[in-house]
Amino acid sequence: MASIQDANRAFFDKMVAEYDLKPWQKKLELNITNFLVEKRQWLGLDLGEDSQGPIRLLDYACGTGTITRALAPYVGQIRGIDISPKSVEKYNSLISTNLPAETKAVEGDLIAPNAVPAATPEFTGFDIVAVGFAFHHFSDYKLGIQRLQERLKPGGILLIIDFLGEVDESTMEAFAKRHNQSTTELRATMHKTGFEKGEISALMKDVGMVDTSEFELEGNLEIEFQDITMNRKAMFVKGTRQ
Ligand SMILES: C[S@@+](CC[C@H](N)C(=O)[O-])C[C@H]1O[C@@H](n2cnc3c(N)ncnc32)[C@H](O)[C@@H]1O
Q1: Predicted structure pTM score
Q2: Its GO biological process terms (predicted)?
Q3: Ligand 1 within 6 A of 130 CB?
Q4: Is residue 120 part of a domain?
């Protein structure tokens, strides 16, 4: 059987052509961006006079760059990593121009037995590592947090944005249909579709992270399929590397 990683690579390589294009996706990006901008102090992005040079952000599982676009005005350098080569290609073609931060993405998987890219200076010591709506696609959640934590500088922040609560089987079917994929292909990309309050913070604490906190996005994210609109809640979970 293919691994979750293989399933994700295949699924998102196929899906990337239409990712970001729908009005509901634009609205979702705007919602997330507004939240991140409003909470940038909570994220440590207003370092002011204490700042020791440009803030470095790792947008992990970056897809086509939602989190990058939201945070680019507040940071100096961004590196994206994604398991799907076609997503990386699209990220680099969309992002390379007109962004204030120096930005590029590479193909990789930090949850694989041999993490890629290796921990060179370019891919370590980040001030912030952010994961947008991809944590539920990880094969091993605790290992994922551990591996991402290792890419932070001491005092750096891990931010995970994901869905609160799970969806039922019929919604999974509608979602797969909407993307012209089989439910089996979709289900193979994840163990679960969302998390409970406190679940991700607990994993962060398990691997030694401190100062964890969570915010719930006000209102619902409306995700539209051909015939139904699914309302989902999103949460933002933060922890600090000691
Ligand atoms: C729902 S998309 C989210 C993309 C983007 N972060 C956003 O907020 O729009 C999930 C992304 O996770 C990537 N992904 C899944 N598993 C991964 C892994 N183990 N390592 C890196 N990227 C992964 C997929 O290729 C896909 O681009």
Answers
A1: 0.94
A2: methylation
A3: no
A4: yes
Instruction: Say which CATH number the domain at 211 has.
Output: 3.40.50.150
172: confidence class by pLDDT, cuts 50, 70, 90: confident
> Residue 39 corresponds to which amino acid?
K
Determine contact, residues 45/33, Cβ cutoff 8 Å.
no
Give the chain's length: 242
Q: 82 alpha carbon to ligand 1 midpoint, in Å? A: 6
If residue 6 lies in a helix (H) or strand (E), which one and from where to where? helix 4-15
CA 27, CA 19: separation in Å to the nearest integer?
13
CB-ligand 1 contact for 157 (6 Å cutoff): no
111 lines ligand 1 (CB under 6 A): yes
Regarding the beta carbon of 82 and ligand 1, being less than 6 Å apart is answered yes
Structure tokens at 158: 């891990």
Mutate-to-test residue for ligand 1 from 83, 110, 123, 139, highest number of ligand atoms within 8 A of CB: 83
Ligand 1 lined by 12 (C-beta under 6 Å): yes
The SS3 assignment for 90 reads helix
Phi/psi of residue 29, nearest 5 degrees:
-65, -40
Q: How many domains does the chain have?
A: 1
pLDDT mean over 44-59: 75
- Indicate whether 151 pLDDT > 70: yes
Tell me the three state secondary structure of residue 158. Answer: strand
Domain extent, residue 23, equals: 4-43+57-167+203-240
CA atoms within 13 A on the CB side of 24: 13
pLDDT at 120 over 80: yes
